[in-house]
Amino acid sequence: MANKVLMKGNEAIAExxxxxxxxxxxxxxxxxxxxxxxxxxxKMPKIGGTFLQAESEVAAINxxxxxxxxxxxxxxxxxxxxxxxxxxxxxxxxxxxxxALVVNVQRGGPGLGGIQPSQSDYFQATxxxxxxxxxxxxxxxxxxxxxxELTVKGFELAxxxxxxxxxxxxxxxxxxxEPVSLxxxxxxxxxxxxAATGTKMQRKHNIINSLYLxxxxxxxxxxxxxxxxxxxxxxxxxxxxxLMEDAEVCVTAFGIASRVAKNAxxxxxxxxxxxxxxxxxxxxxxxxKVFEKYADKVKGFISVELSMGQMIEDVRLxxxxxxxxxxxxxxxxxxxxxxxxxxxxxxxxxGGNK
Amino acid sequence: xxxxxxxxxxxxYGSGKTNIAVNFALELKxxxxxxxxxxxxxxxxxxRTKDSEELFKENGIRLICSPxxxxxxxxxxxxxxxxxxxxxxxxxxxxxxxxxERGALALGRLVPKIKExxxxxxxxVVNVFRPLTRDVESIYQVFSEIENACKLKFTxxxxxxxLGLETTEEDVLSSMEIVKEFSKKVNLPxxxxxxxxxxxxxxxxKIENLYPLTMQKKL
Lengths: 354, 219
Description:
Chain A has helices at 9-19, 34-43, 57-69, 80-85, 87-95, 122-126, 144-161, 171-175, 215-235, 255-270, 288-295, 311-319, 338-349; strands at residues 4-8, 24-27, 50-53, 74-78, 100-106, 137-139, 164-170, 177-181, 239-242, 249-252, 275-280, 282-284, 300-305, 325-329. Chain A is of the alpha/beta class. Chain A has two domains: 4-235, Thiamin diphosphate (ThDP)-binding fold, Pyr/PP domains (Rossmann fold), CATH 3.40.50; 240-349, Rossmann fold, CATH 3.40.50.920. In chain A, strand 2, helix 2 (34-43) and strand 3 form a beta-alpha-beta unit. The longest helix of chain A is centred in the middle third of the chain and has 21 residues, at 215-235. The N and C termini of chain A lie far apart (52 Å). In chain A, 53% of the residues are buried. Chain B has one domain (6-213): 3-Layer(aba) Sandwich (Rossmann fold). In chain B, strand 6 (156-159), helix 7 and strand 7 form a beta-alpha-beta unit. The model of chain B has no long low-confidence stretch (mean pLDDT 94). Chains A and B meet through strand 1, helix 2 and strand 8 of A and helix 7 of B.
């Protein structure tokens, strides 16, 4: 029988988390990510894990804090409004340097918004996510296969750097079904000498805490944390280049928008337009260098987004005024069509004229 | 296919119930005058029967679905018209039930009347490539959870094993043994194996009771 299974993106995240050794899931249902919780509720009891539907998102993220303190792999998932509720906990996780995996299957906003796909939590995810000086590792899958693979990778990075990894997906990726291969290697979990696992009277207490009584001490931890962020920016950037070798127009998009963009690029290539794609896979750290590399070589950049234009700000910072950067977008749960992207490509190719 | 007054499609979510329901409605319409397709899925707000609304209109098939289907109103609402599938004597219906036991709960409301009419088929749709229905045992778990939730017995098994657009001839062939074994275990007829129209020609003659499916558009 084929080595693949047919999965929804949400299910792929849940199954991959289990493969990565996650045995603790805490969540609260919200469309369009509910299948993650539903899958965990069916699977966890069978493998000796914990599935707990918390009384709220706030409760769920604090349960994550608790399990993360013991060094075990733990996750929660939600969709846009639910992630906002988890904000306080995300900041506490960062302050206490705890590894955790948090999934945001984005829906249209602001407010209660709607249940259709969106990428409008880019700012929230990449610029911290809550109060205080901190970052999360933010990873954006673009297929059901990547939903699975990057979940495993997300746990590994979270453990490696003692921080939260956020999988930033959207309603389409969560709901769509694609064949997935689940045969991937999982690295053994690193030692966690900092975890609160009981001293057995043989070592000093490990204290998990985000409160500092002296500002000098708090400042020092922030400086240290940002040194770690620098290492991550050096070593963990992930992106995909598609047909960029001879490109004169560069489209950039992540997640589901990148798939629409690829369709448009293929069509434009048929019409003889030299166009390619840079697809950021890590949104933080942002793949700044690859944009710098092409900034002098292309006529312009087009950021395709399911938002009012959020990633475009990071693209502009990376391009640093060397080429025009324009937006091609839909918002509120709508998805740009390949035709809309194609039109933007042709316009930039013609020097901004139609 | 020979259709009873009420044909119910149930199974694990994502097994392909809706797609088969749409194909059934079109086939049934060729046999009888008054046909309805009823979407009583209270679980999944996406990929609904309503996606094929235009097709039903063109073919004179009545669509019974929640007024909130495919909208941002994310509540488990049932269409009030759904009672016509049991109350309207000359109406033939295809019922598209939501996934798993939670989806089957919604069907329960109609079950006393369905039993009284005693003119129904309920098919368990199986895709062995779905992660939670990979073998006889796990398929049986979903099967019995559904029966317990809606208090109605299945009357047949439909094999809809597929990997979406990547499905190969071998994939379908490899699913046959599991579904055959399952149908034996629950002592119900193995009604047919559904395949896309492209695979139909390749598998014709190799599999008994092959059913060609026209794929419905998604999104």
